Amino acid sequence: MNIAIIGTGYVGLVTGACFAEMGVQVTCVDIDETKIEQLKKGVIPIFEPGLEEMVARNMKANRLHFTTSLLSVLDNVEVVFSAVGTPPGEDGSADMRYVFEVAQTIGKHLSHYVLVVTKSTVPVGTAQKVKAIIQEELDKRGVNISFDVASNPEFLKEGDAISDFMSPDRVVVGIETEQAQKLMTQLYRPFLLNNFRVIFMDVPSAELTKYAANAMLATRISFMNEIANLCEKVGADVNMVRKGISTDSRIGTKFLYSGIGYGGSCFPKDVRALIQTAHKHGCSMDILQSVDGVNERQKSILFDKFVASFDGGKLDEKVVAIWGLSFKPNTDDVREAPALVLIRKLVDAGCHVKVFDPIAIEKAQLTINRELNDDQQQLIYFSTDIYDAVNDADALMLVTEWKEFRMPNWQIIKKLMKHPVILDGRNIYDKKEVMEVGFNYEGIGV
To answer: How distant is the alpha carbon of residue 206 from its chain centre?
Structure first.
C-alpha cells in the first residue's frame, strides 16, 4: 500500500516511520524545506527513543521517503494522512488553518479515489468541514471524483511513542463508508495480528474520543494534586492515599501521581480546546475549567515552597538549581513545561537559576531566549551535569523525574550546596533518607 503523511512533526514522523516498518510505502510531506533536507540526511528534529534508528532503517530499505511536494505523490497513493499542527489560539481553541489548507490542496489536485484521514487532534465536526472543502474544490474544477474522509486520532505518549504505535491498546477509526473501513482495516492489520483491536465508529465520536481521553487523564492528575495539597494541610501522606485508592479496580494506578502539574503538547491544549468546543455548542465544562485552573496553579507550587523555606525573606541573589526542563522524561518537549513557569518566577524574583536536563536543554534555551529579556537571560546558567547545577545553590528543585536523577550522591551534593534545601516536585526521593543526610526536604503532599 502507498500512503502519504502530511506533516513531519511528532505525530506525522512517528506514524510514517511505524507504517514503513510494517512494509507500507510511505512518503512524508512537509512545506519546511530545511526540515525535509535534514530528514533526508537522517537528522531527526525531535527526541523520541528508537525513532532515529527506525527512520534510518526504513529510508535505507526504500520504504520511507520525504518531500516538500504533495503533488508529486498524490497520484500514487491510496490514503493521505493529515498530521499537521493545530496550535492553540488565544482563547484556547484549536487553530485549524493548516488542516483546511491541506484539504484545499487535495481538492485542487485529486485525480482518483483517495481516503483522507485526519490524524491531527481536531474539534468535532472537522471531518465534515474537510470533506466540504475538498468537494468545493472538485466542483470548481468540474470533476466527479469520489473520496472519503476518516478520523484516526493518535494516542501516543511522548517517550513511548514507538511502542504505543506498534502495540496499541486500541486504534480508533471514524468512518462513513465500507470502502474507508476496508482500507483502514488493511492498513492496521499487520500491527494487530494477535488481537485485532480496531474500534470503528462514526466520525464525530472518533474526533471527540481523543479529547475525552486526554481530558480524563488530565482530570486525574489535577484531582490528585488537589488531594496532595490537602494532605499537607491535614498531615496526611499523598503516597499512602494514592496506594489506598489505586487498589480499587474501578480506579487503578495510572495518572494518580501528584506533582507540579502536567505540560506538553496534548493535555493543556486539548483540555482548553474541548472547553472551547463545548462553549461554541452552548455547554459549560465546569470540571475541565477547574482542571485547567488547578494545573496552572500547581506549576507554581515549588516556587511557593521555596519562598516559604526562606520565611518569605529576600530572594534576590539566591541561587536555585533546577533538575529537569522537559515536561516529562524521555522527551525534549518543553511546551507548557512546569520548569519554564518556575524559571520565570525565579528570575522575576531576582534569583540566579542553574538548570540541567539530559536531553531538553537546547530546546529549553531556545524557548527561554525567546520569552525572556536580556537581563533575565543573564540570571540563567545552563549546567553541564547535576553536580554543576547544585554547586553553590541555596535550593534544589527536582522538576522532571529523569532516571539519572533518582540516585544522586547526596553527600557530595550537600557539600556543594550553600543551603541544604530539596524541593522534590515529583516525590521520587525518600524523605527520611535525605533528611538523615542533613537536608531540609519538601515533597508534594508528603
So the answer is: 20
Q: How far is Cα 340 from Cα 353, in angstroms, rounded to an integer?
A: 11
- In the chain, CATH 1.10.1040.10 sits at 211-296
Closest CA to 435 of 404, 414, 418: 414
Q: Which amino acid is at 92?
A: G
CA distance 69 to 288: 40
Beta strands 319-323 and 395-398, pairing class: parallel
- Mean per-residue pLDDT pooled into runs of 10, the chain (446 residues): 95 96 96 95 92 96 96 95 88 88 96 96 93 97 96 93 90 96 93 79 95 95 96 95 95 94 92 92 95 96 93 84 96 95 95 96 94 94 96 97 96 96 96 95 94
- Cα–Cα dist 202/200, whole Å: 7
Residue 372 DSSP label? S
CB 92 within 8 A of CB 272: yes
Place of cell 515533597: 443
Return the active site residues: 266
Question: What's the one-letter identity of residue 323?
Answer: W
Matching CATH number, 211-296, of 3.90.640.10, 3.40.50.720, 1.10.1040.10, 1.10.3720.10: 1.10.1040.10
End-to-end CA distance of the chain: 54
- CA dihedral of 381, 384, 385, 390, whole degrees rounded to 10: -30
CATH of 2-201 among 3.40.50.720, 2.60.40.10, 2.30.30.230, 3.40.50.1100: 3.40.50.720
The cell for 123 is 474539534
Q: 299-442, superfamily in CATH?
A: NAD(P)-binding Rossmann-like Domain (3.40.50.720)
Among 77, 87, 85, 74, which Cα is nearest to 1's? 77
Query: Reduced to 3 states, what is the DSSP secondary structure of residue 174?
Result: strand
Burial (CB < 10 A; 0-12, 13-18, 19+), residue 91, is exposed
